[in-house]
Amino acid sequence: MVTTGAIIYGKGDYLGFNTEEHPVAVQLGGSDPSDMAKCAELSQERGYDEVNINVGCPSDRVKNGSFGACLMAQPDVVASCVKAMQSAVDIPVTVKCRIGIDDMDEDEDFARFIDIVADAGCKTFIVHARKAWLQGLSPKENREVPPLNYPRVYNLKKTRPDLSISINGGIKTLDDVNTHLLNVDGVMMGREVYANPYILANVDSTIMGDESAHGISRREVVMQMQQYIERQEDPYFKPWHAARHMLGLFQGQAGGRIWRRYLSQNGTGKNPDPNLLMNGLAEVENAQREIDLYNKAKANA
Which residues form the DUS-like FMN-binding domain (predicted)? Predict the structure, then answer.
């Protein structure tokens, strides 16, 4: 996610990504149609596969910038952005939103928002199945406190079968994903995937039905990410830039805490470990061997 102001006026490259990430979407934060169209065009030129409008982020900074969840109360503004962006690009323009904010009615007001934005040309909505309370709750609380209302999103798909509807919020297992897919077109997993990225290893077989797919081991993940790191040519790239997103790779496994600690302690600072992932893996595997030996000795006692 990047704001239009950062792209247009910022000095850094806020649209950079690695080609190995395809398919990849950029999410824009903004509410000025001309700025959104310009940034959508720049994103398409850089090779993005999709441009998404942020109508879900509830932070005060986002609210004060007139984008994010506060735009749920301004569907005409979002519709204008959709029209301007679609006239500027050929890639899909999609919207990520909530089911409402503050005292908005989850049925009538949400349906009105969807209808106005869809009539402007948006055909894909990713819906976080919670309201956002812009008054009284922090961004973190807004991801957890407002109750989930999955049936509201299911009902949207029933009433607007012409639209592609994906659901988001509190989804923790692939079994949950399959249950949701009985009612909507797609599922977005956010915090669970970040905390436990290995959950994605069985998506091809469990969700996509690919019987020939075989899950990659955690060790193979580390090996491939090490190779990815070694391929990077950006002089500003550091192993920690990739490793920090892998802290949860061994969640629920023996050695998981050792992995997190090694990466955190040795990936940053003045002298970060250049072989961070491989050395961290060695620490985990040593711990796992010791546990296995202990369990065998205990079983034979």
Answer: 1-276
- Selected catalytic residue, list 57, 81, 97, 122: 57
List alpha helices for 143-272, DSSP H: 150-159, 174-180, 191-195, 203-206, 218-231, 239-243, 256-266
Question: What's the CA gap between 246 and 1, in Å, rounded?
Answer: 20
Structural tokens at position 12: 């850094």
pTM score of the predicted model:
0.92
The verdict on whether 81 is a catalytic residue reads no
Longest alpha-carbon distance in the chain: 74
Higher pLDDT, 58 or 149: 149
pLDDT of residue 279: 96
SS3 assignment for 43-108: HHHHCCCEEEEEECCCCHHHHHCCCCHHHHHCHHHHHHHHHHHHHHCCCCEEEEEEEEECCCCCCH
Distance CA 272, CA 264 (A): 10
To which residue do tokens 């720049």 refer? Answer: 42
CA angle, corner 204, sides to 202 and 209, nearest 5?
Answer: 115
> Cα-flanking dihedrals φ and ψ of residue 241, to 5°?
-60, -30
Q: What is the C-alpha separation between 301 and 295, in angstroms, rounded?
A: 10
How many Cα neighbours within 13 Å face the side chain of 64? 3
How far apart CA 226 and CA 245 sit, in angstroms, is 13
First to last CA, the chain: 56
> Could you read off the pLDDT of 73-118 as tens digits, one per residue?
999 999 999 999 999 999 999 999 999 999 888 899 999 999 999 9
Separation in Å, CA 170 to CA 12, 133, 217, 274: 34, 17, 26, 36
Q: Which domains does the chain have, with CATH numbers?
A: 2-169 (3.20.20.70), 218-300 (1.20.120.1460)
